[in-house]
Design a protein that fits this description.
- There is one protein chain.
- The model is unreliable at 1-10 and 19-38 (pLDDT under 50).
- This protein is an alpha/beta fold and 404 residues long.
- It is 39% helix and 13% strand.
- The longest helix is centred in the C-terminal third of the chain and has 15 residues, at 385-399.
- It has a 5-stranded parallel beta sheet, sandwiched between helices. Strands 2-1-3-4 form a 4-stranded parallel beta sheet, with helices on both faces.
């Protein structure tokens, strides 16, 4: 079994083609194996024929001392060794529910491992198999930029009527900023509840209070307009690279949703042309997309929902029905393989992996597990104690919201 071979798909699943840009940037590299930075010590070669067996041996040796978490967007070769799979918040909660585990191996990206460290006990070590596995969306909101943005809001006289809400896909520092200012964290599943709560703290949805939503502008806009009934004109985008966020004081005063200029590099790729093309190609197809997609894509789809929603939708789909899914390719491949009774299509016609998530491969997981077996704790993720406290305040506020 090759460590980088794509997983088998259902007979009807058409594998998307590599994009011309990827071919240009990656040639002659293997486009399915973003390796990330080298780990200290010996990183196994992806071609090692004993790699799967080494993973099995190391996992067995760790036993109950370790708990392995696998995000839905991970490669199948990694998911095969996960004790639990899920989205970022589900995995962080699963880690917190395993206080007996000495090591939490988080096969995800950096902000997810930070959340696990915040929610677990001090005697537990959260390990990220490759420290280069970051999140481009989370990196679009740096703490110094957010603090400067808050000063802009204060100078405009609206900070006292603004509550920050940060998406789970943000750094611990941004979650801590949100906690310090009385806000909350949200997921793509509970964004409506979180935003409604936030508006209630500043006069209600029909008042003049505001929400600073970070770092994904699309989730904030889609939730505010499609689920809370605000208008697109109520939403402005704060660009941290421009003076004053690129907004006048009048624009800030009139806005209800101040959206951070951030996006997901995967979900932001999908277009209305993709939707048009798949409808022409597959009559009767159900188009299902993630709320991190652009507003025009979401409004042209049939269904929109979180990763867990997408999985449940296909689990309950009528046999023989056709589905075009707008989310990360590893997950869509896996859903197609799990549901041969469905006609599953990838919404985009070209490859669209989460390149940073893809850095966690079997060689990195084997290296991390074998290091732990040998008594070396590698790539431990530790959040600053003060940030951890205030981030926990924001996370606890989310946990207190109804319906979570």
């Amino acid at each position: 079994m090759s460590a980088v071979a794509p997983p088998p798909s259902s007979p009807g699943f058409a594998e998307p083609a590599p994009s011309a840009l990827l071919e240009l940037l990656g040639s002659p590299r293997d486009l399915t194996s973003e390796r990330g930075v080298e780990c200290p010590g010996d990183l196994p070669a992806p071609s090692d024929p004993d790699l799967v067996e080494r993973a099995r041996v190391a996992r067995a040796a760790l036993g109950d001392r370790a708990f392995v978490l696998g995000h839905h967007y991970q490669r199948d070769e990694v998911i095969d060794f996960a004790d639990v799979t899920g989205d970022s918040f589900k995995l962080a909660r699963e880690a917190a529910a395993r206080p007996e585990a000495e090591f939490i191996l988080f096969c995800g990206v950096h902000f997810m491992a930070e959340s696990a460290d915040i929610l677990t006990h001090e005697n537990q070590a959260v390990v990220l198999p490759d420290l280069a596995a970051g999140c481009s969306m989370a990196d679009m909101a740096a703490i110094d930029q957010v603090e400067e943005a808050w000063e802009v809001l204060a100078d405009a006289g609206i900070a006292d009527r603004t509550l920050p809400v940060t998406y789970m896909n943000s750094t611990a520092a941004i979650k801590a900023f949100t906690g310090r200012h009385g806000g909350t964290v949200c997921t793509s599943s509970n964004a409506q509840v979180a935003l409604r709560w936030a508006f209630d703290q500043v006069g209600g949805v029909d008042g003049d209070g505001k929400v600073l939503f970070m770092p994904d502008q699309h989730l904030g806009r889609n939730t505010a307009v499609l689920e809370l009934g605000l208008d697109l004109e109520d939403c402005v985008v704060f660009d941290p690279r421009r003076p004053g966020g690129g907004l006048s004081e009048a624009e800030l005063e009139n806005a209800r949703m101040i959206l951070w200029r951030g996006h997901c590099s995967v979900h932001g790729r999908f277009s209305t042309q993709n939707v048009t093309d798949v409808r022409e190609r597959v009559p009767g197809v159900n188009v299902l997309v993630h709320p991190e997609c652009k507003h025009e894509v979401v409004t042209s789809a049939d269904l929109v929902g979180s990763t867990e929603f997408i999985i449940r939708a296909l689990d309950g789909a009528e046999p023989g029905s056709s589905w075009a899914i707008g989310t990360e390719l590893n997950l869509v491949r896996r859903l197609a393989a799990q549901h041969p009774e469905l006609d599953v299509h990838y919404l985009d016609s070209t490859v669209c992996f989460c390149s940073t998530m893809n850095r966690i491969d079997l060689p990195h997981l084997v290296w991390a597990m074998e290091s732990l077996v040998a008594g070396r704790t590698v790539n431990r993720i530790v959040v600053d104690p003060d940030d951890a406290h205030w981030a926990r305040v924001a996370l606890d506020q989310m946990l207190a919201l109804p319906g979570l």
